Amino acid sequence: MKIIEITLSVSAVTPLLDLLLNVAGELKTEPALPQDILRAPAKDLGDFWRDELLAAQTDDCGKFFALFTNDKFLSKGTIQITPENSDPVLRACAAMRLRLRATHPEALDERVLQATDKLPKDPALSRVLLAYVFLAELQNILLGNRTPHDPAPPSA
Amino acid sequence: MPANPFATPDSGTVATLEPAQSWRVVVLDDPVNLMDYVVMVFRKTLGFNEETARRHMLEVHNSGRSTVWHGSREGAENTAFALQQWHLSAIIEPDENY
């Protein structure tokens, strides 16, 4: 994968990042996946399994926010995706989208998501929707710029 | 009358052989993850080619679930864990048909 630079509007993205920081904070103690999914695979491994997932998603979110806490973003709005941070950023986006959908069902129900041409009147709901769409767009850009050889065979 | 010291004891350990249980990893549909993301995760974690990954993604999307792996319990746990690290709804189930 090549290095991708994306230039964003700092004033548009900053309010979304404030919301996403809260979401990432929740993901330090709550897995992004629903509890019934996590319970199914390994009852005897429960706590270890959960702790490992929490550690991984916390690390991924840290790498996501590192994109926005440097001079390049603050001065020009530019974030840089490299082969090293691409996977963690993709996973962080997925985790935060799942968490947003679980915690803000009123802002992200199917009816709202289908009506992409109009935002909810409530600014708080509108911000949730914009953050959800922003994360999806970021994922789309990264997925669209992967080379066919990016996926490596599984190591296990 | 004293017990016969040469009699065969009526208790002990009996070893039986049973076929190893097979397990499967099933990915369930979720309304959040992007289709291309799911394809990429299948390729990356399961080593699928593009065509196979897309077929399984569409099965998840259309049928609500797709079996993506069969094998030992430990292998199924490792595979499900890898998929869950990418936030796919992966579960493991005993597989009587395999």
How do you describe this structure in short?
With 156 residues, chain A is mainly alpha-helical.
Task: Provide tags for this entry.
heterodimer; A: mainly alpha; two-stranded antiparallel ribbon; B: 98 residues; alpha+beta; Ribosomal Protein L30, Chain: A; three-stranded antiparallel sheet; 3 helices; elongated
Task: Give an overview of the whole structure.
- The complex is a heterodimer of chains A (156) and B (98).
- In chain A, 60% of the residues lie in helices and 5% in strands.
- Chain A is mainly alpha-helical.
- Chain A has one domain.
- In chain A, helix 1 (10-26) runs antiparallel to helix 3 and helix 1 crosses helix 7 (123-144).
- The radius of gyration of chain A is 17 Å and the shape is globular.
- In chain B, 39% of the residues are buried.
- Chain B is α+β, with helices and mostly antiparallel strands.
- The mean pLDDT of chain B is 88.
- Chain B is elongated, with a radius of gyration of 22 Å.
- Chain B has one domain (23-94): Ribosomal protein L7/L12, C-terminal domain/Adaptor protein ClpS (Ribosomal Protein L30, Chain: A, 2-Layer Sandwich).
- Chain B has a three-stranded antiparallel sheet with strand order 2-1-3.
- The chains are: A mainly alpha (156), B alpha+beta (98).
- At the A-B interface, helix 3, helix 5 and helix 7 of A face helix 1, helix 3 and strand 3 of B.
